[in-house]
Amino acid sequence: MIPSHPSERLPELMAAYAAAEYIVPPLRCTIRVDELCPEADAWLEEAGLDTWVFITAWNPWSVVLPQEENAARHHKLLALVGHLPHLHGIGRDLSGAAPDEEGLLVGGLSLEEGVQLARELDQAAILFARYREPVQLVAGATPPNLTDYSG
User: Fold this and answer.
1) Any idea what DSSP says for residue 124?
2) Alpha-carbon span 77 to 120, nearest angstrom
């Protein structure tokens, strides 16, 4: 049963996002919440940046959408951040309960800019890190009406 309001799912979703892995093939790294990511730090240093955000546009609030809609949402994400240094990545739920999601590691975004981007894309959370600091899971968009996405 879908909860009457998405905010009821937020603790469950945040726990799932915290347990997930975020794979960035160009850096040959796996990003995990509350851990350092030396490969991302090296990328930031090389680019002369000090922050990054990992975000997906897929499946807002973890409501699985059709592939075509997710592709269109990813295209929108690229349109919004394509001018910034970015690398393609994959969010992976290790429990297998949710499908892999395409995402981007975007360099140079502040925490506030990352949260704003999450709001624009109806994403419940983002990953954020500063150079040589552990990865943070940060709440993003205000919960929408889930029926907006569930058909």
Assistant:
1) S
2) 9
Measured CA to CA, the distance from residue 77 to residue 150 in angstroms comes to 21
Task: State the residue for tokens 């469950």.
Answer: 12
> Is 86 within 8 Å of 28 (Cβ atoms)?
no
Give the separation between CA 124 and CA 10, rounded to whole angstroms: 8
- Measured between alpha carbons, how far is 89 from 74 in angstroms, rounded to an integer? 12
Burial of 90 (0-12, 13-18, 19+ CB in 10 A): middle
pLDDT digits (tens, 9 = 90+) for 110-136: 999 999 999 999 999 999 999 999 999
Instruction: Quote the CA–CA distance of 33 and 59 in Å, as a whole number.
Output: 20
Residue 110's pLDDT is 98
Domains in the chain: boundaries = 6-148
Mean pLDDT of the chain: 92
State the Cα–Cα distance between residues 97 and 130, nearest whole angstrom.
30
